[in-house]
Amino acid sequence: MMIIYFWAFVVGGLICVIGQLLMDVFKMTPAHALSILVVAGAILAGFGVYDNLIDFAGAGATVPIMSFGNALVDGAMTEAEQYGIIGVITGMFEVTSAGISAAIVFGFLGAVLFKPKG
């Protein structure tokens, strides 16, 4: 059982290290690093590799930002099988809408409840 936690920690940590290296070594902005990680997750999902990583590392692969790219591709592929080309667009929004909605709501609540430093 403990080995699951170990691999989740290692894989999640490596994903974070890659993001940090993109910012420190390649002098990318956080937005660029996040975009690269999302696209990398989408590409790995497109080749069917990211699901194997999730099976291996569990939360170490589902929590970092690469999982968002995976969710976009998985949703698009699932809906495309049912509804064709229009399913590609609706599938991405359907799968990721809960996370995006939560980010908007909690961001708004944070802005209302706390005074920003200017």
Automatic annotation (TrEMBL):
<protein>
    <submittedName>
        <fullName>Stage V sporulation protein AE</fullName>
    </submittedName>
</protein>
<dbReference type="InterPro" id="IPR005562">
    <property type="entry name" value="SpoVA"/>
</dbReference>
<dbReference type="Pfam" id="PF03862">
    <property type="entry name" value="SpoVAC_SpoVAEB"/>
</dbReference>
<keyword id="KW-1133">Transmembrane helix</keyword>
<keyword id="KW-0472">Membrane</keyword>
<keyword id="KW-0812">Transmembrane</keyword>
<feature type="transmembrane region" description="Helical">
    <location>
        <begin position="85"/>
        <end position="114"/>
    </location>
</feature>
<feature type="transmembrane region" description="Helical">
    <location>
        <begin position="33"/>
        <end position="50"/>
    </location>
</feature>
<feature type="transmembrane region" description="Helical">
    <location>
        <begin position="6"/>
        <end position="26"/>
    </location>
</feature>
<dbReference type="InterPro" id="IPR014204">
    <property type="entry name" value="Spore_V_AE"/>
</dbReference>
